[in-house]
Write a structure and sequence with these properties.
Blueprint: H1 3-11, H2 21-35, H3 37-43, H4 49-66, H5 68-76, H6 82-98, H7 100-108, H8 115-129, H9 131-139, H10 144-157, H11 161-172, H12 177-194, H13 196-206, H14 212-222, H15 227-233, H16 242-254, H17 258-266, H18 275-285, H19 289-298, H20 302-319, H21 321-330
Helix pairs in contact: 2-3, 2-4, 3-4, 4-5, 4-6, 5-6, 6-7, 6-8, 7-8, 8-9, 8-10, 10-12, 11-12, 12-13, 12-14, 14-16, 15-16, 16-17, 16-18, 17-18, 18-20, 19-20, 20-21
Length: 332
């Protein structure tokens, strides 16, 4: 009823603010933004510093929906720094809800180190109300790095069962093998945390349409979080999917129960295609690469031993590159 008087009162607040002041003013700023977004913006710099960010966000969020170009111009004229960055993300979020494709084009034309973050902000905002459009726009991004980052971001954003299935279907049709594998792994981790039964049901039903690399990544993302569930479903899988699944189960067991991992891996000893299962069981159960190598030498099956040794040396190269190099030089 009196926006000007309310703004003057807020701007006059000095000293230590009440403990719940942020909660109180959040709703006040929203009401002021609806009534007088420009007046609120003009008054922001007179507010206590701790309140400026939330007040500016409320005003810009409203203004961007009413006059997007004016809000963009306002942000463009702000001095470089954290307040401007946050204001830009606020406008991007609101812009994406009003004009999704125009907002994405604007974000793609942005410059600087925050370019990809701005693109992700726009796509994530679109995905809230229009997930299919957001996924389609992601597929159309020219940069593979931008596509990959945006897709992974959306797997976390679309965190309910129905939308998970939508994202999964989209990911499974991606032509870029590396991107598909990375996205499937990220999706699996998120989906298993939210709804493991639905996640595993989708994965089991999708194995026939997955490439070997995609299946391997998906199995690690889905199954390694819950090896007991994965083990129970093993016999229902088609033959081509079982090796990757067995390795994922072994990894999940090894992280918390090395004996269970070795017991699981022993089921497949000597079976062609399952060499990685034993290697994974040993390598994830033992953190010391030197001990991993020692265990590999003791493995009876030479193919399994070679796989285990390769994993051990790869980990050694990450942790102790000089030691790994000396080991390689010492080979006959």
């Amino acid at each position: 009823t009196d926006p000007v008087g309310c703004l003057e009162y807020l701007a006059g607040m000095q000293g230590e603010l009440p403990q719940d002041w942020g909660i109180i003013t959040a709703s006040v700023y929203s009401e002021l933004a609806l009534a007088e977004p420009l007046l609120l913006l003009e008054a922001v710099d007179r507010f206590p510093y701790s309140q400026q960010r939330s007040a500016r966000s409320a005003a810009l969020n409203r203004w961007a929906k009413v006059d997007t170009q004016a809000a963009l111009d306002y942000v463009r004229l702000m001095p470089t720094g954290a307040p401007r960055d946050h204001a830009e993300y606020t406008v991007a979020t609101a812009y994406a809800r009003v004009e999704p494709e125009a907002a994405l084009a604007w974000a793609m034309d942005s410059e600087g180190t925050a370019h990809l973050s701005l693109v992700n902000t726009v796509l994530t905002s679109i995905s809230v109300n229009e997930p299919e459009l957001a996924l389609q726009l992601t597929s159309n991004l020219e940069s593979s790095e931008a596509r990959s980052q945006a897709l992974i971001q959306m797997t976390y954003q679309l965190a309910d069962e129905g939308k998970f299935a939508l994202v999964a279907s989209h990911i499974n049709n991606i032509e870029d093998g590396d991107m598909r594998s990375q996205a499937l792994s990220s999706l699996g981790m998120s989906w298993m945390a939210a709804n493991p039964d639905a996640a595993l049901e989708w994965l089991v039903n999708s194995t026939s349409s997955m490439s070997e690399a995609a299946l391997e990544s998906a199995a690690y993302g889905f199954v390694s979080r819950d090896p007991e569930r994965g083990a129970a479903l093993f016999e229902s899988l088609p033959q081509h999917a079982r090796p990757a699944w067995a390795s994922a189960v072994a990894q999940g067991y090894a992280r918390r129960d090395p004996d269970a991992a070795r017991e699981w891996a022993a089921r497949f000893r000597g079976q062609p295609g399952f060499e990685d299962t034993a290697a994974v069981a040993f390598n994830y159960a033992v953190s010391d690469p030197q001990e991993q190598l020692a265990l590999a030498r003791d493995m009876e099956n030479p193919v399994e031993a070679a796989h285990a040794a390769a994993m051990a040396v790869a980990r050694m190269a990450e942790q102790e590159p000089a030691t790994a190099a000396n080991w390689a030089v010492s080979l006959d």
